[in-house]
Amino acid sequence: MASAKRKRDDQDAEDTTPRKLRTQPVEDENDSLSELEAQTPSRRGRGLLAENGTPRSILKKSGLANELNATPKSNRRLTFTTPTKAAGDETPNGTPTIVRNADRSARRKSNRQLIDRTINGEDSEDEVLGEEDALAQQILSEEEDGQTEKRDKEADAQEAIPVPDTPSKRPRGRPKGTGKNQLAAKARKEREPSPPTELPAQEQYFWQNRPGGNKTSNNTLTSQTLLNHDEYFDTMKSCVDRHEPEKEFLLELHSRAYDQWIFELEEGFNICLYGYGSKRAITSNFTAHVYQHLLDQAPYKGTKRTPNIVVVNGYTPNLTLKDVLTTIASATIPKGLKLPNQISSLLAYILDTLARDPPPHPLLVVINSIDSANLRKSLVQSTLAALAAHPSINIFCTADTPNFPLLWDVGLKAQFQFLFHDATTFAPYSVEIDPVEIVNELLGRSGRRIGGRDGIGFVLKSLPLNARALFRIIVTEQIKAAYMDDEDQDDEDVTATSQSKKKKNAPRTPSESSQGVEYRRLFHKARDEFVCTSEVAFRTLLKEFHDHQMIESKKDSMGTERLLVPFRTEELQMLLEELLLENAF
Amino acid sequence: METKKCYMYAPPEHESRPSKRQRTSESDPHAGLSERLKIYSKTWAEQEKNIQRTLEEADRATQGKIIDFVAANAPSEDAPRISIPTGLIVAGPSIASHGPYFERLGRRIRDETNSSYVVLTSGESPNLKTLLKILIKKVTSRIEEDDDDEDEIGRFATSSRRGPKLLNFDLGHIQEWTSRNMVQSIVVAIQDSEAFDTAVLIEMVDLFYSWLDRLPFVLLFGIATSSESFEERLLGKSLRYLDGQQFDVTQSDDIIEKLFRATVAHPDTEPHIGPNLCRRILERQKDHVQNIQDFVHGLKYAYMSHFYANPTTIFLKNDPKFKDFSSDAFEAIRNLPSFRRYVEEKLEVGDTRSVRQLLCSDNFLFEVIKELIVTVQDALSSLSIAAIVLTRIRESLGITPKVRLSNVWSRAASGELLDSPLLRETMLSIKKTPSDRLARLIDSLIGLTTEDVGRHAKEIDIPIDLEQLQRELKTLIEGNASSEPLRSQDDVRNESVRTTVVAQKVLLSKHKAALSEQDKAYSGIVARFCQQLESYFRFALIDTRTLFLYEVLVYDLKSPHTEVFQPRPRLAIERALATPHDYLGCECCGNMQDAENTLAGTQPATAIVYQLYLESGAIINATDLWSAFHAIVGKDDEDDQSQTMALFQRALAELKFLGLIRPSRKKADHIAKMLWKGL
Question: Which residues contact A109 (CB under 8 A, 6 or more apart)?
Fold first, then answer.
């Protein structure tokens, strides 16, 4: 690996020297090397010695200080005394026969091969070397260091000599990337992508987004590692949180503010809690507190009447605005009256009733997770704001996401009239989220949702024959597509000409995004196999799969619909086997 | 309960309230709270009245004009209308205050003219049909029966007595309603005209125009930008149907200034808002919200915090008696920094006896407080008055740059005004003022009141004999024969610059022109006025922050105010995850900033994953993340990874829930980073 790189750097050095010819750099280099080799056979050892003994910078300095004669090293002298050789190198046609002969030697060949490889792609280092390569590597490995050393020294020498006769355009100094130090530094840099610490936030951003800087490994999680629901809950049950007392303390701390919050609500403000951790414990405790507080007061004290408090769990899926409004209506509007059906009319009706016949105290509406996905629509928020703006309604809500204030523009904010309190609890969002599900989705394993292959087997058993056939077609097509992808990639790997990993990755991305089967193609395929005759029938069959979450439909970058069975290829294969087995019966 | 969508709260069956009882048995932190809150509600009610009055007065002029406009455009029998009377109400960019404005306007229009008034907003009028339905519903105040969108076309909404039944977006409903209700005009206010779809507006104007012979429409457009840009949006045809008139509403920053004068800088307020907080509120107004309502809420919350959290505010009670206060209240006073300073000053003078009494005798302390609270209140009022006077002088002399009262006041309150360039500059310009302008200035100072206008404005008394000055000035001016006003000796026009060339050098020398007798006398008056003014300012503009009982009379804490109105939720979450110790305060993940290993395995799982997340690039391999996590949290001796995995899954899911990561399709098992900390 290192040797190949060095070779390339030699190449660079060659290129940057204007006197050298560019057409056949490899041969040129080899020539000069061979010349050196031939004349000073013992230099290698010395070079190594020098390399090991002295750091490069010092060597360089001494070279500069002593100018010409201080270092009687043969290699240096050699370069001085053989300017003709170098000149000879310049003429492309005048390649000496020695060189040609030398070219034929096995070492040359392997050398060139290595160089070719290096030029064509650094990445090939990662690839397993062929036997030949290994051999070549072995042959060269001993010399490699010595040679590079020589080249370096030559460069040093060139640098050291004042060359008045060359009108060189090359800036004085070592050609870029020649020095071993720099090489080493470069290698180190590439090996350690860990960022410099203590960067300011914006620098951190650019550092982490620098082009090519983001190399990640290709490791994947085996499907056994992730827990399914049963395992997860079993494990969580036995899990002991070492921070339980601290979390308790945080809750206790927040509970001291209950009276203050009641005061704030009474003064017409609404309250929004934010911060990390589930705040359900706080809301439920606070609700109980307010309930008791109200019980001790005028219209309820001494009577059997109880105050109304509406609680909305924003995180529950399928929660609709209608649910919220109906619950609020049931608390404000006397029973037996018919409620309007439409949301806007219902809202108007509620507000109207409250304005005409205000309750003895404002109705408290507690909303858990006001920023949850199903409450984010602007209609929902504006309706809630209209409720909040009413003097007879108090809103006490929690918000989980870090950017929730973006939900409200100036107008809505003015209506909400929120006071915000930091209520960090560190409590797990045990009710709000389903970790297993979310992680599966995050890592593209949503197929686990329906209970894996077994689940699909159960569903398919209950479906008619042509549905089963259709599913088989989808799976087959998807496996085919996956294989084709793989082949493409293999081809690419073999013929890889691009130098960077990134380039090689580039063509892979679209194939990833175009996973699954195109809707049209699938339909034609299904028709050809007499699974269905019309698109309507086809759709009906697909709907069944959709309902059981056996397939997912996605739009690719071109906007065409693609259908996808959410499993990995290995699992798909097993699935297909099962399907075929079943069909055999 | 937790999985229900929404429900009415019902307490759990078994009654248990241990925590509450526990707390009341200890020394009650809320002692005297209800008493203080009573004082609060009284003071705030007073303030709120002030605010309401100021707001109404700010709108009064424009609203009056609009009402006149509506009344003048009532249709008459003989002159059929050829275009829709349209008021373009340029209400300024603070859209949040448009709603309340149109509400106040509507109240007055309904009260003072015989019209029906309807406000339409863009949100409820996405298309013409919905707009008309809403309009009809609002005008006829018909409570709509159950109707579903689907079948309304085929169904006839109301039962009209004659003719075919009307669809529910037919303006015929309004015609029928007007024939029964006899209104002069139907005022339709388009609250946020910019947010309306232009096509809807054009169609609406066309339709209203075609009904103009039957329905007396008057249109009011709320405009946040300018009337020109509003006109540009409409077609020429629609513009021909409209007969427009523009009304400029007082802009919100002017109103804020007025409110400021009526509340914060009012000499009679009690308690005052401190300069720091006041600056913060004003800055927020200027930079972020531009919303009058918000200013009022900020003020209200300051009052609330002051009375809720500060036990010493109980001494703001009217007509205090010694028996009203508990010893705790006195103890609280003794803990004030300003009390400490007060006592130390006494010690320096050697007044040890009264110090002892202050410390030991509640009764003595009470008498001192009772006396001093009035003095300090006076000092605070005279500070406010001085600020008002200074602003008025600058206004009257037309000194640029214009400095608003809010600015002057907050500088005065923080004790910066006395030696400020602002004051010096003002004094210099007074010295140079010619007699006619000085006369005007003195007149305006004599007529200075606490508020700009209104019945509640009280006269402000400046301890300068302004009348005497005014009289002398008057006689002097009357004796002045020339048409030119009298000039003082500091006036530039009484100086001339003479240029002489001496030994090839140019010498500039100033020469005072010889003053006339009258000018001399005038200069005397100016000098006297300036001197008195200066000593007045020196007396009034003291640094009040060092006064005893300052904490009782002035609320100047940033802390709850900023967080409550300008929260930084993202920062809070990032901090909680990056340094959980800040919140948890536990020993295990304590301060290890010095050591490199800040990632202790004891931290909450999500915090660990988050910190790993911070270190990684834009896309993250979940497998590697897992192995890193496992290396930190996992125990070596256990074979079963499931517990660690469960924690990891939960942490990952929480990050996703918080919107910090999303799936990445670039590579298998990769996730993409969404938020960079601190940006």
Answer: A136
Cβ neighbours for A461, distance < 8 A, ≥ 6 positions apart: none
CA distances (Å), B557 to each of B302, B329, B387, B615, in order? 8, 20, 22, 38
Under an 8 A CB cutoff, do A434 and B7 touch? no
Calculate the alpha carbon distances from B526 to A487, B442, B589 in Å.
Answer: 99, 11, 72
* Closest Cα in chain B to A287: B9
Q: How far does B663 lie from chain A, in Å, by closest CA?
A: 5
> What are the boundaries of each domain within chain B?
32-57+251-418+541-566, 73-250, 569-673
Q: Give the separation between CA B553 and CA B570, rounded to whole angstroms.
A: 35
The answer to whether the CB of B656 falls within 8 A of the CB of A438 is yes
Distances (CA, A) of A144 to B341, B368, B564: 82, 95, 69
Which domains does chain A possess?
Answer: 2-190 (no CATH), 244-422 (3.40.50.300), 444-496+507-584 (no CATH)
Q: For B265-321, how does the pLDDT look when each residue is reduced to its tens digit (9 = 90+)?
A: 888 888 889 999 999 988 888 887 678 888 899 999 999 999 998 888 888 888 888
Write the single-letter amino acid at A437. E
Question: How do B6-8 and B84-90 pair as beta strands?
Answer: unpaired
Q: Which residue of A has its CA nearest to B138?
A: A348
Q: How confident is the model at residue A448 (pLDDT cuts 50, 70, 90)?
A: low
A508 confidence band (pLDDT: 50, 70, 90): very low
Q: Which of B136, B289, B649 to mutate to test the interface with A (most CBs of A within 10 A)?
A: B649
Please check whether residue B103 touches A, CB under 8 A: no
Spatial distance between the Cα atoms of B243 and B85, rounded to a whole number of angstroms: 5
Scanning B630-669 for CB atoms below 8 A from A yields: 641-643, 645-647, 649-650, 652-654, 656-663, 665-669
* Chain B residues within 8 A of A428 when measuring between CB atoms: 650, 654
Judging contacts by C-beta atoms under 8 Å, the chain B residues touching residue A341 are 146-148
> Which CATH superfamily is B73-250 part of?
P-loop containing nucleotide triphosphate hydrolases (3.40.50.300)
How many Cβ atoms from other residues are within 10 Å of residue B465's Cβ? Answer: 12
Q: Quick one: pLDDT at residue A104?
A: 58
Distance from C-alpha of A367 to C-alpha of A374, rounded to nearest angstrom? 13
Distance CA(B127)–CA(B150), nearest Å, equals 16
**A303 DSSP 8-state letter:** S
Q: Would you call B676 and A403 a contact, using CB atoms and an 8 Å cutoff?
A: no
CATH node for B569-673: 1.10.10
Give the predicted TM-score (pTM) of the model: 0.73
Alpha carbon of A424 to those of A274, A294, B582: distances in Å? 7, 27, 11
Q: How many CB atoms lie within 10 A of CB A84?
A: 8
ipTM comes to 0.85
- Interchain proximity B583–A250, CB inside 8 Å: yes
Euclidean distance between CA atoms A3 and A115, whole angstroms: 10
Contacts of A435 in chain B (CB under 8 A): 649-650, 652-654
Which residues 252-311 of B have a C-beta within 8 angstroms of A?
289-291, 293-294, 297, 300-301, 304, 308
| Minimal Cβ distance to A411: which of B95, B588, B615 | B95
Q: Does B618 touch chain A (CB under 8 A)?
A: yes
| Cα diameter, chain B | 111
Chain B's closest residue to A209, CA to CA, is: B618
With an 8 Å Cβ cutoff, are B6 and A323 in contact?
A: yes
